[in-house]
């Protein structure tokens, strides 16, 4: 839903970033307003995942230039946990396993950290159990997963559902979903996408990072961006995703080559 | 122990590093037969105890310091240590009101209030300062149940027959180098006696405080549970920060008769030295329990976080038929700390059972070894052991080793051993952080998840705080 007067949630300006001194992002510009759904597409190595890690604050990624403002404030002045508490959510492409830490306890601590920042009452163990059971329905997840260690022994699809469950609990302002569709069969994809759709609202926004059109069949984007060589090369509406499905990414090389000459 | 006091006990990186300025009665440095006689004389001991000490000392002279542990430290000069230091006060006071206020204040600061008004309501405490016990709380109340809980010196005076009967029967004075040294020069410690059929009505606890910079601490603890008796005992330890090393060589003996049960928990937080490995306690401890009676049970739970060097193997000799030995350990090393710790389960009687759960966490440049022996004797038909030894590495400079020894002379027995190693990764921490969980809490969650099986064994009030202690000890070591 595009409303030009909606709150500007995320303002990425000429962002440069490196991993191990290797420049990956080379001038990303992107504005995200409340209510919008953005899709960021592109080939492997184009910088899509790096963008998501930078926004969440992964310590291995270094910002080398530009700025990101989140609701007007400097995002990079915040620790990863502060960003999360203020409503920035990263859905991981590969959620890690954390042996020994109970999923239920993890979800409760995370939820309470966010609630506390929003001035809401913390939920005790019993209240949280009721709360989480409601949210499980969003992703049709078996309560048995609450009793296990975080992501341990979960299948790929279960891990992704657990990500969306966390999104449902944290009620983020902006969600960055990094290849949430990868490794999912069509049924799991529909469940995950259905969860994301249920959670969207006029006050929140999401950025879907994906290779493929098929996620965008389930979640309709307002904008589609094509990333290449660490920049956004082209921006369009939902029809751009359909076009990409047909023509692929070969034109990207030509355009980059042209620019290189120019 | 109330949660407030345990929070105090664990809530700072090392806030126990202060020194109490107090006049001390110290003897000259060095060790000789005269020193042994002097210590015994100062304590006005009966002849059997002097003979026990002398025999131990003479044997110690024939021994070499063991070097089989995975530990490296410069040679200890045993002549450069003071073997007896006591705060100057006449005798042991009948009432706490007469104890030097400075000492009471010291224990207050350590989170162990001793005075009538402030002391813990459900824990009796014996407070040991350098070489002597300065106070024991709730003695009268315990006496009503026939329970004896007092300093070792007091026990020698008031219950000499019990001491003579049990001292050195579990850890003989010639057992090993450090046990022999302790037997020769031990100064004080705690004595617990739970008579037949009595369930000790409160948690018992000894708090050991090293204060002097050039003094060794050699305490001796003896716990006897008669038929059907049971007791839960907790010890805590702290010391000031000195840039020299202090030697701590303790001996603990436990005796459980038929159907008796002893649960012994330790939270060891001696000064560990600084991040470069300067200073810290050398902790060489012999702890052993003997399940003498049928169906008796001895359970060791230890949370080892302090000391520059830890050499410690709380063990069980399972003599009585159907007796049970347990060892639950969390050993955390950081910076330049070195720990070589584990247990021995010696199965003598039929159908004896033992469980070993060891969790080693190594951070910084530290080294952490588990060393354990499971021995099944010819008479231990139907004996069973289960061992689980897990190591967690934090960072890439720390080392972890596991040395399990299994000796079985009984075909009708079962020994199971499992081991694992894991590492806290940056990606795991980032994952938790990206969900709003702060860095330290994230480390704490992972470490306490790793240690949960052991923390579940601690007295309840302490378990909640133990993970905080570990998280604090790990501050700055991750990432």
Report on the architecture of this protein.
The complex is a heterodimer of chains A (262) and B (479). Chain A is an alpha/beta fold and 262 residues long. Chain A has a single domain, classed as P-loop containing nucleotide triphosphate hydrolases (Rossmann fold, 3-Layer(aba) Sandwich). Chain A contains 9 helices and 12 strands. Chain A has helices at 48-56, 80-85, 103-117, 125-136, 156-170, 186-199, 214-218, 238-247, 250-261; strands at residues 8-19, 22-33, 37-41, 61-70, 73-74, 88-91, 98-102, 149-150, 174-178, 205-209, 223-228, 231-236. Chain A starts with 7 loop residues before the first strand and ends with a helix. The mean pLDDT of chain A is 93. Chain B is of the alpha/beta class. Chain B has one domain (3-473). Chain B is built from 11 helices and 23 strands. Chain B has helices at residues 3-10, 33-42, 47-61, 101-109, 139-144, 152-158, 160-166, 177-185, 426-433, 439-455, 460-473, and strands at residues 24-26, 85-87, 123-129, 132-136, 148-151, 190-194, 203-209, 220-225, 230-238, 245-248, 251-256, 261-268, 280-291, 297-304, 309-312, 315-318, 324-333, 338-347, 353-362, 367-376, 383-394, 399-408, 413-424. In chain B, the strands form 3 sheets. In chain B, strands 5, 6, 8, 10, 11, 13, 15, 16, 18, 20 and 22 form an 11-stranded mixed beta sheet that branches. Chain B has a 10-stranded mixed beta sheet with strand order 4-3-7-9-12-14-17-19-21-23. Chain B has a two-stranded antiparallel sheet with strand order 1-2. Classes of the chains: A alpha/beta (262), B alpha/beta (479). The interface between A and B is medium-sized, with 31 and 23 residues.
């Amino acid at each position: 839903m595009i409303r030009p007067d909606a709150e500007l949630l995320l303002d990425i300006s000429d962002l440069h970033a490196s991993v191990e001194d290797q420049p990956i992002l080379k001038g990303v510009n992107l504005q995200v307003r409340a209510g919008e759904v953005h899709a960021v597409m592109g080939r492997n190595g184009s910088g899509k995942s790096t963008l998501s890690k930078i926004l969440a604050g992964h310590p291995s990624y270094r910002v080398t230039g530009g700025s990101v403002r989140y609701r007007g404030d400097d995002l990079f002045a915040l620790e990863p946990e502060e960003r999360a508490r203020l409503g920035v959510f990263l859905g991981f492409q590969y959620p890690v396993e954390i042996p020994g830490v109970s999923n239920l306890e993890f979800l409760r601590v995370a939820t309470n950290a966010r609630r506390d920042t929003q001035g809401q009452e913390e939920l005790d163990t019993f209240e949280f159990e009721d709360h989480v059971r409601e949210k499980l329905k969003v992703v049709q997840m078996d309560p048995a997963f609450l009793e296990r260690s975080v992501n341990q022994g979960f299948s790929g699809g279960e891990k992704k559902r657990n990500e969306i469950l966390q999104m449902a609990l944290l009620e983020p302002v902006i969600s960055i979903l990094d290849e949430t569709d990868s490794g999912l069969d069509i049924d799991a994809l529909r469940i995950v996408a259905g969860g994301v759709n249920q959670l969207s609202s006029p006050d929140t926004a999401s950025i879907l990072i994906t290779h493929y059109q098929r996620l965008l069949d389930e979640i309709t984007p307002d904008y589609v961006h094509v990333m290449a060589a660490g920049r956004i090369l082209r921006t369009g509406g939902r029809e751009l995703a359909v076009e990409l499905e047909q023509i692929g990414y070969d034109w990207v090389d030509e355009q980059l080559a042209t620019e290189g000459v120019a | 122990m109330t949660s407030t006091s345990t929070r105090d006990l664990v809530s700072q990186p090392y806030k126990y590093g202060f020194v109490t300025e107090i006049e001390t009665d110290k003897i000259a440095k060095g060790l000789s037969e005269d020193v042994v006689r002097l210590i015994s004389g100062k304590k006005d001991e009966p002849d059997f105890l002097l003979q026990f000490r002398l025999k131990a000392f003479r044997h110690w002279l024939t021994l070499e310091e063991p070097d089989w542990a995975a530990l490296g430290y410069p040679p200890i000069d045993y002549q450069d240590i003071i073997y007896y230091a006591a705060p100057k006060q006449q005798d042991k006071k009948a009432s706490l009101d007469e104890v030097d206020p400075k000492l009471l204040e010291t224990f207050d600061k350590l989170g162990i209030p001793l005075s009538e008004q402030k002391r813990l309501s459900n824990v009796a405490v014996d407070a040991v300062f350098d070489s002597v016990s300065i106070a024991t709380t709730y003695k009268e109340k315990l006496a009503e149940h026939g329970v004896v809980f007092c300093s070792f010196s007091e026990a020698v005076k008031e219950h000499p027959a019990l001491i003579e009967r049990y001292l050195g029967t579990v850890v003989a004075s010639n057992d090993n180098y450090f046990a022999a040294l302790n037997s020769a020069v031990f100064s004080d410690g705690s004595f617990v006696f739970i008579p037949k059929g009595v369930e000790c009505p409160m948690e018992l606890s000894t708090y050991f405080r090293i204060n002097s910079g050039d003094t060794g601490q050699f305490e001796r603890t003896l716990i006897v549970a008669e038929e059907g008796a049971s007791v839960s005992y907790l010890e805590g330890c702290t010391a000031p920060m000195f840039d020299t090393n202090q030697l701590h060589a303790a001996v603990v003996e436990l005796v459980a008769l038929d159907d008796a049960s002893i649960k012994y928990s330790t939270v060891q937080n001696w000064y560990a030295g600084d991040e470069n490995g300067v200073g810290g306690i050398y902790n060489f401890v012999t702890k052993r329990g003997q399940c003498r009676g049928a169906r008796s049970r001895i359970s060791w739970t230890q949370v080892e976080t302090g000391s520059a060097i830890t050499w410690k193997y709380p063990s069980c000799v399972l003599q009585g038929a159907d007796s049970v030995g347990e060892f639950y350990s969390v050993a955390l090393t950081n910076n330049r700390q070195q720990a070589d710790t584990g247990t021995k389960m010696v199965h003598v009687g039929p159908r004896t059972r033992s469980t070993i759960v060891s969790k080693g966490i190594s951070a910084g440049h530290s080294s952490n070894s588990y060393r354990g022996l499971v021995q099944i004797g010819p008479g231990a038909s139907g004996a069973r052991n289960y061992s689980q030894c897990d190591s967690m590495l934090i960072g890439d400079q720390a080392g972890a080793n596991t040395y399990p020894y299994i000796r079985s002379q009984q075909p009708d027995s079962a020994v199971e051993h499992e081991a694992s190693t894991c590492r806290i990764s940056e990606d795991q921490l980032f994952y938790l952080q990206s969900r709003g969980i702060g860095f330290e809490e994230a480390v704490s969650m992972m470490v306490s998840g790793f240690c949960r099986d052991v923390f579940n064994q601690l007295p309840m009030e302490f378990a909640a705080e133990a993970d905080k202690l570990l998280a604090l000890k790990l501050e700055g070591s991750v990432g």
